[in-house]
Design brief:
By secondary structure, this protein is an all-alpha fold. The chain has one domain: MFS general substrate transporter like domains (Growth Hormone, Chain: A). It has 16 helices and no strands.
């Protein structure tokens, strides 16, 4: 097992993050906007986002369990990349809601585990130097920035109709690159049954609950932020710049994450992230100023950057060696899966009646509750240790 982030590691795993989040740079800001231009309602957009997120709950757990049980992580990773690309290609021939819903469900079955598998590969490959994770993950943020900056202008000129084709092209590249991933495995020190016990530990359950609420609070942002900006009269170039600014701030945190976690505990970083998320959504609740909206995007450095890195490291610390793939799968399933399912459906159902402003206000309260619960856990653990 690699103990340090060698140059070959960065050259092999770094591009995986670069391609994956490049595709996300097309999908997250613009796919829902594409559906909006097809004439789908807010509820239908929420349902499509929810279907994809349901897959992120169920299938990372299924594939992660299979991978750990049969030591087949690399084979499953490659197969899921190929299958998800094939199903996405079917969207080239669909424009009605029912057909797209079925295709998104099939696509999600195989797309869902890709990122959790990649995180597990990275954690194993880094070995004792896990705090360097942020520098590897920064490849994805750089790709996301470049994509949204370029794509915003392209869509102003060409229209949103090219979204599906662009995502397909990126997925094809990802599928080819998947064959280069190293087959890193940690020798198991305990049985699979023993390794799975970490799910029911109170500390893990409380953390996953708080992380779930954190991503629920992001549902309005990921589902309707771009639509919100368009309804304010802002063009797609502005939308692209807005998303790019958020990722630029995120990179600054990730590349220096080793210094951050050398100074502050994972628990303190997580608590701070919850508080800043509540502030960020509150700002979007009270303002329509383009300048203030752009400024608030800088907070993405904390609400995503520090929170994501701290969460990956925190769950890795809690997870036994026997279930490292499963641990990251559970984390992704509960947060980016179940959390966003609830967030997307919640915001989709209420968008028509409440509008984006009030939904961001509710998001702020949800993040505040999550932070409060995690703070209570932290104080309880400190009291127990005293």
């Amino acid at each position: 097992m690699t103990q340090n982030p060698s140059r070959p590691l960065f050259l092999v795993i770094g591009p995986q993050y670069f391609i994956y989040f490049g595709v996300m740079g097309v999908f997250l800001p613009f796919f829902n906007l594409y559906c909006y231009h097809l004439g789908f309602s807010g509820f239908q957009i929420g349902v499509l986002s929810g279907i994809r997120s349901v897959a992120l709950v169920v299938f990372p757990l299924f594939w992660g369990l299979v991978a750990d049980r049969f030591h087949a992580r690399r084979k499953i990773y490659i197969g899921c990349n190929l299958a998800s690309t094939l199903f996405w290609a079917l969207l080239l021939f669909a424009s009605d809601f029912s057909t797209m819903a079925v295709i998104i469900a099939l696509y999600g079955m195989f797309y869902a585990p890709i990122i959790s598998f990649l995180e597990a590969f990275t954690m194993d490959a880094l070995g004792d130097d896990k705090q360097s994770y942020g520098r590897l993950r920064a490849y994805g943020s750089i790709s996301f920035i470049l994509t949204v900056l370029i794509l915003g202008k392209v869509l102003d000129l060409a229209g949103v109709g090219i979204i599906v084709t662009l995502i397909l092209a990126g997925s094809l590249v990802q599928a080819v690159a998947a064959f280069k991933i190293p087959d890193v495995q940690i020798k198991k020190q305990a049985s699979d049954r023993a390794g799975l016990r970490f799910f029911i530990r109170p500390r893990v359950l409380v953390f996953l609950t708080c992380a779930f609420l954190m991503l629920v609070s992001h549902g309005t942002y990921y589902g309707f932020y771009s639509i919100h900006l368009e309804t304010l009269g802002l063009d797609k170039t502005f939308i692209g710049i807005s998303w790019a600014l958020a990722s630029t701030a995120e990179i600054l945190v990730m590349v220096k994450s080793d210094r951050l976690f050398a100074r502050f505990s994972l628990e303190r970083v997580l608590m701070f992230s919850f508080i800043v998320a509540a502030l960020r959504w509150a700002i979007l609740f009270v303002t329509a100023s383009p300048g203030i909206i752009l400024l608030s995007q800088v907070l993405h450095a904390v609400t995503y950057g520090t929170f994501h890195v701290a969460s990956i490291l925190y769950i890795d610390r809690l997870t036994p060696d026997a279930s490292k793939t499963m641990g990251q799968a559970v984390n992704n399933a509960v947060t980016y899966g179940l959390g966003l399912v609830v967030g997307f459906l919640f915001s989709g159902v209420l968008y028509e009646s409440l509008g984006a402003y009030r939904l961001f206000g509710v998001s702020s309260l949800i993040a505040l509750v999550a932070g409060g619960v995690f703070c209570l856990l932290y104080l309880f653990e400190r009291k127990q240790a005293a």
